[in-house]
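Write out the 3D structure for:
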Amino acid sequence: MYGFYDVSAEEDKEKMKKRITSIFLAVMLCGCTQASSASGSSAKASEAPAEHTAEASSSASFDIYETAMQGISVPDNYTAGIQRSYTMTFGNDEGQGVYQMDGVIAIQDDSHARISQNIWSDGMQSVIDGYYEEGRLYNTYNNVSYYEDMDFSSLKETMLVPLDPAVIKEGQVSSFTQSEECCAEIFTMELNSTGAKELLDQRYDIYGFKDYENYQVESGTITQKLQDGYLIQEISEFHASLTSNGIPVQVECSTSAGYTDIGMTAVETTAEQEEAFAAYVNYKDIDTSRISDADIEADTPGSDAEETFRKRLLSRLSYTQESEDVYKSEFNTNESYTVDFANHQFIYTNYSSSYVYNWKGDNGGFGNTCSYDFGNGTYTDDCDASVIDMIQKVKDYFVMELYYCGLSLDDLQGRE
């Protein structure tokens, strides 16, 4: 057994209680790595699509990036889907240690938010779900409910993936690519050795790699997608090496953050939830014997993104399987979501109206009267502004379903 943050069996209960905060717990779990074989990796960060990529001269290209980042606004209301993955390959033929995490944070303002996280560390799963209200996080971790007081910046840190955009310096970059996708600009930066180490150490690493012997960062890539003055996606990928307990370790680590519902995110709690919060205990008073093991088989990544999505529509989002390829969620008497894998469609139905998004073609429609192409922004003559707006919202609904299943649209579309 090899690990970076080994937790002794004799560790006293009080120390364990203090570790059960979202961020510290996740670091601890991530550190209890054992040698094992990976079962799949839906949490691998997707790269931006390579098509329509145009190289420019280094200095001129980077001027474009710097200008774009100077115009970026950081919203105070948004929803973000995040992923983090570590794979550690041990040099003694003992296999791999794998840590994966995905989650969603919905931020209404700096006093109201909701978080969810799913964490795997070599066969052990942890599920976290919480509401943040006026400086207090009401959290449930593997069926144990507790509260913890923290400021808003600390809440964002519990997600374990940076939520504010990275600003890359030209001196950190060895090559730079700008591309376009519909209305978004995509900047992909291959980092030089100095830049890769600086960014991994200062921004993306929660493991503390720099404290290990023979630590080196071999490569790093940052991809950022900008649209309408906002960052809508940031992906990082790093390769490093180090020595732990005399054993050489190769490390692959990646993060991904995608943003939606900017300026439109609302976080609400029911009267029943508020009543339940009153019974939550302080995290220092948790009865650790009540922590349960989650059903990891129902939630583990499948062989590809589609299989993972199918599994988690059932295990996470409580869809029902209507037929071999059709999954449905009815969330009141009038509205429903349907995922039709045979036709690559997500269907939102409200009374007799149905809006469709097709993820294979990246297009949407309303009945027989309107068709909208997200790739180039074109639409048929019978589309009015309100219908187009609703089709765009339905695509956002679908992206959110993917986020809650630990996936991105790029994953499902198979973009490498």
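The radius of gyration is 22 Å.
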